[in-house]
Amino acid sequence: MKRIALLPEGTVSHEAVSYLFGNEPVQLQYYKLISDVFLSTVNGKSDYSVIPIENTIEGSVSLHMDWLVHEVNLPMQVEWVYPSIQNLIGTREEFMDKDGEIDLSKITKVLSHPVAMAQCQQFIKKYTPAAEQESVNSTVEAIEQVRNNQGKGWAAIGTTLGAAKYGLDILARRVTDHSNNFTRFVLIGPEKLQLSKSATQWKTSILVSLPEDFPGALHQVLSAFAWRRINLSRIESRPTKKKLGNYYFYIDVLESMESVLLPAAIEEIEALGCQVRVLGCYPSFTYEELEN
Ligand SMILES: O=C(O)C(=O)C[C@]1(C(=O)O)C=C[C@@H](O)C=C1
């Protein structure tokens, strides 16, 4: 049975991985910190790690992208998209007014994972204007802390699954600032992953480092894709962490390494003096493709 490392039970990651595997039997291993999720697969304690990498509202999850690039060398084996439905969670009685209605302005502190918190900023400002905000390691850690500090006016942003796990109430449902809020997840691990479902789209993620003092290098890199009519779905620059002002480019290509075109494009880019590292070539599932 595949051993899957992920953030704790009741997180969005937990919901997402259950959606990916459906009825396929897998052994889930929960870790409090995303760094321990990565390290579990690096150290062979699990076969794959579940890593959230991008969100509709927040964009790239930089911390996780940086771990993927700088700290580990495990290929991406599958990508899928799952909706991040966040709720405001706490103990009802703490926020009741004299008419028995919930008064969210009584909330003194809102806790969540920073990415989940960022998805709900307008809601927090509007309905809990006096609340302090505190970032924790996962949405479930936030729920746990609220449960352990009852009576202080604290509330968490997290999933209904997490609220049920800790026996707390949903104070407000679907509190993200945009309803179309999805997170892109990847499974990383040394072995290819066999899934019972198949995706229509394959992707390849690459890192390109440009040579120094080469005017127009990025333009030439992009033209290697452009003239072959290879579609890119994301390009992003991130610091190399070696020297101020040095960046590499993270590029998602809508093409498999099995195609004739992509290896040729990479060869052309390398011939320009760029370094290319392939982070993975994997099936990319839409939310709908994984249904049923
Ligand atoms: O804390 C969780 O529930 C997670 O699964 C982590 C995470 C993230 O790291 O981006 C995943 C998706 C969410 O939208 C918010 C948080």
UniProtKB/TrEMBL annotation:
Pathway where it operates: Amino-acid biosynthesis; L-phenylalanine biosynthesis; phenylpyruvate from prephenate: step 1/1
EC number annotated for this UniProt entry: 4.2.1.51
Alphabetized UniProt keyword annotations: Amino-acid biosynthesis, Aromatic amino acid biosynthesis, Lyase, Phenylalanine biosynthesis
TM helices/strands, residue ranges: none
Annotated Prephenate dehydratase domain residues: 2-190
ACT domain residues: 206-283
Gene Ontology MF term list: prephenate dehydratase activity
Catalytic activity: prephenate + H(+) = 3-phenylpyruvate + CO2 + H2O
Source species, domain of life: Bacteria
Gene3D superfamilies from the UniProt entry: 3.30.70.260, Periplasmic binding protein-like II
One Pfam family this sequence matches: PDT
First-level EC class: lyase
Matching PANTHER family: PREPHENATE DEHYDRATASE P PROTEIN, PREPHENATE DEHYDRATASE-RELATED
Name by which UniProt lists this protein: Prephenate dehydratase
